[in-house]
Specification:
The structure is a single chain. The chain is an alpha/beta fold and 457 residues long. Strand 6, helix 10 and strand 7 form a beta-alpha-beta unit. Helix 2 runs parallel beside helix 6. The mean pLDDT is 97. Bound molecules: glutamic acid (GLU). Glutamic acid (GLU) binds next to strand 3 and helix 16. GO terms for molecular function: glutamate dehydrogenase (NADP+) activity. Keywords: Oxidoreductase. Belongs to the Glu/Leu/Phe/Val dehydrogenases family. Pfam families: ELFV_dehydrog, ELFV_dehydrog_N.
């Protein structure tokens, strides 16, 4: 490497470190947010080394600061008549390339750090989709687990009563995430409609098919993850056929990842929920999982009652001790730590692609990269969900509905483009085969160039 090139890289690394230190100081104790920022900033070093304009325009300093954070009280009355109070959030992180777009998460772990990490990731993920959507995220520490239908409705109505002041089809378009599915979106849409007095279909995505939802949106994140992984496999001259796959989680992302992987000939041997995991050496029976999780809303431990040759293990962490060719973490952030990653490697894993947001710690990612595991990071691999959300917005604006096949074909094209653009960016910036660097750079450049085009705003 030429000396000036090396000097530029060193200077860029120093600049990036300084910005990262400021982020830590400004956002004390927010470890998940720090983690997401660190992963992206380190990837961008070669960009700053090559193009001084981004540093001159303070793009990094601007992009790590959300345009706006809204935090609000959500009071509601439970079935016993007691007043409960939760905290609601919406972070409107970056609107350079389109309206803020990103899901709402209802989970007791939700706090400012989690919402900011998710919102920050969403900026780059949404940019990668090629659709005109900015980055946002929201949610609440409300726990839907064990709540009655009525309680969920009362909570979501109260949540939307406040949130409705800040969203709209051209400003900010929420959708689902952990704990927010078709039922919650339905209640929120109903309340929004009542509050604004009009039928603004494009204000939320992931809607039911009877009121403006898009075919394939339910399947999109899981299917998209598998389409992306299929591209990774193709690069290595392989396919899903006869591969052993472990999928963590059993929510919407996991279910449709399992479905598509099975359709492509893979054997999916495990899935989980927050209590434990199921190992079925004969291959997971997806009909059973769908019924337990989507219809009965029960725990995955029920699975072994119907499939006695399968094993249920309490606790989730050991799911990564099951030998597999392909691991698809689809549960939650930081579910694979360094030790779990080492176990996966020792057991021969060849591919890891992330369906959840940031399911691998920074140390786990290091383990994949240094052991020749081909790694598909979340913001590229799970972008199919939000991509089809953008297609839902397009259909709502045009007041028409595309067929399942039309949307599915567009989704496949989008995932292939994300893969190819990430591969290309990695190559161009000297990190061939590193999709972390590639996807971060490809996602960043479009947003950064647009921010420069818009001036200091
Ligand atoms: N929650 C999903 C994500 O993490 C989808 C968001 C959306 O459709 O707006 O990307």
């Amino acid at each position: 490497m030429a000396t000036t090139e090396q000097a530029n890289l060193t200077a860029a690394q120093q600049y990036v470190n300084e910005v990262y230190e400021t982020v830590k100081k400004r956002n004390p104790g927010e470890s998940e947010f720090h983690q997401a920022v660190k992963e992206i900033l380190d990837s961008l070093v070669p960009v700053f080394a090559k193009h001084p304009k981004y540093q001159n325009e303070s793009i990094l300093e601007r992009i790590v600061e959300p345009e706006r954070i809204i935090s609000f009280r959500v009071p509601w009355v439970d079935d016993q008549g007691k007043v409960q109070v939760n905290r609601g959030f919406r972070v409107q992180f970056n609107s350079a390339i389109g309206p803020y777009k990103g899901g709402l998460r209802f989970h007791p772990s939700v706090n400012a750090s989690i919402i900011k990490f998710l919102g920050f990731e969403q900026i780059f993920k949404n940019s990668l989709t090629g659709q005109p959507i900015g980055g946002g995220k929201g949610g609440s520490d409300f726990d839907p687990k064990g709540k009655s239908d009525r309680e969920v409705m009362k909570f979501t109505q109260s949540f939307m009563t406040e949130l409705s002041k800040y969203i709209g089809p051209d400003t900010d378009v929420p959708a689902g995430d952990i704990g927010v599915g078709a039922r919650e979106i339905g209640y929120m849409f109903g309340q929004y409609k009542r509050l604004v007095g009009g039928n603004e279909a494009g204000v939320l995505t992931g809607k039911g098919l009877t009121y403006g939802g898009s075919l394939t949106r339910t399947e999109a994140t899981g299917y998209g993850l598998v389409y992306f992984t299929q591209e990774m496999l193709k690069t290595k001259g392989e396919s899903f056929t006869n591969k052993t796959v472990v999928v963590s989680g059993s929510g919407n992302v996991s279910i449709y990842a399992i479905e598509k992987a099975q359709q492509l000939g893979a054997k999916v041997v495990a899935c989980s929920d927050s209590n434990g995991y199921v190992y079925d050496k004969d291959g997971i029976n997806l009909d059973t999982v769908k019924r337990i999780k989507e219809v009965e809303r029960k725990r995955i431990s029920e699975y072994v009652k119907e499939h006695p040759t399968a094993q249920y293990v309490e606790g989730c962490q050991n799911i990564w001790t099951i030998p597999c060719d392909i691991a698809l973490p689809c549960a939650t952030q930081n579910e694979i730590n360094e030790e779990a990653a080492k176990t996966l490697v020792a057991n021969g894993v060849k591919y890891v692609a992330e369906g959840a947001n940031m399911p691998s710690t920074l140390e786990a990612i290091e383990v994949y990269l240094s052991n020749d595991v081909y790694f598909g990071p979340a913001k590229a691999a799970n972008a199919g969900g939000v991509a089809v959300s953008a297609l839902e917005m397009a259909q709502n604006s045009a007041r028409l509905a595309w067929t399942f096949e039309e949307v599915d074909t567009k989704l496949q094209t989008i995932m292939t483009n994300i893969y190819n653009n990430s591969v290309k960016a990695a190559e161009e910036y000297g990190h061939t085969g590193n999709l972390v660097v590639g996807s971060n750079i490809a996602g960043f450049l479009k947003v950064a160039d647009t921010m420069i085009a818009h001036g200091v705003v």
